[in-house]
Amino acid sequence: MISQLVLFAIDICAVVLLVFGLYFPRHRRRDLVVAYLGVNVGVLAVASALSASNVGAGLGLGLALFGVLSIIRLRSTELDQHEVAYYFSALALGILGALSTTSVWLSGGLMALILVVMFLGDHRRLFRHYRHQILVLDSAITDHVALVAHLEQLLDARVHAATVQRLDMVNETTVVDVRYATSERRLAAEPGTPAHSGAHR
């Protein structure tokens, strides 16, 4: 019983660190704060109750996972891939906090591993040159080589992939999904970067 309460406390500390220490300072999306906290505590409560009853814990965890997947799939607002990763991290922390069959040290270590992975994987310095945008060009460009050259000149970047989503020959527009790497010069000029911040001191 004491070990279970310790796991509960570790889970609460872990999800608070995940949400308020990692996600919100980096992405500033307030509406997902309550979503991540609710998913974590909800899964923790359901899984704990099912583990103490005659109902199989696997069935309960499967239903909880199905519910979270349904929420993500039927969402009314768009979620980025990193926000989906935070969803599953909050879910995993809740499951680990409810499992009384494992040791406190093992569950705590796995929770710490999740936090470390999210800290490193979502760090703004990781692949900071690489960007992804959907652009609407005011010209209809049918030649792929010409399109890439135009995008590189427009973005001052090296284009790695450019996929045309819609080509309107009547209105002379091109909607393109582009993945590119910014140059050091443009990256240093962006607000919020260390070089840009130091230039105004």
Model regions low in confidence, pLDDT < 50 over at least 5 residues: 194-201
Q: Quote the average pLDDT.
A: 82
Residue fraction in strands: 5-15%
Major beta sheet, strand line-up: 1-3-2
Helix content: 55-70%
What gyration radius follows from the Cα positions, in whole Å?
Answer: 22 Å
Number of helices: 8
Distance between the termini: 56 Å
User: What is the number of E strands?
Assistant: 3
Element-level helix/strand string: HHHHHEHEEHH
Oligomer: single chain
SS-based class? alpha+beta
Structure characterization notes:
It is a single chain. This protein has 201 residues and is of the alpha+beta class. It is built from 8 helices and 3 strands, in the order αααααβαββαα. The protein has helices spanning 2-27, 31-51, 57-73, 81-98, 104-121, 144-155, 184-189, 194-199, and strands at residues 130-137, 157-168, 173-182. It has a 3-stranded antiparallel sheet with strand order 1-3-2. Strand 2 (157-168) and strand 3 (173-182) form a beta hairpin. Helix 1 runs antiparallel to helix 2 (31-51) and helix 2 runs antiparallel to helix 3. It is elongated, with a radius of gyration of 22 Å. The N and C termini lie far apart (56 Å).
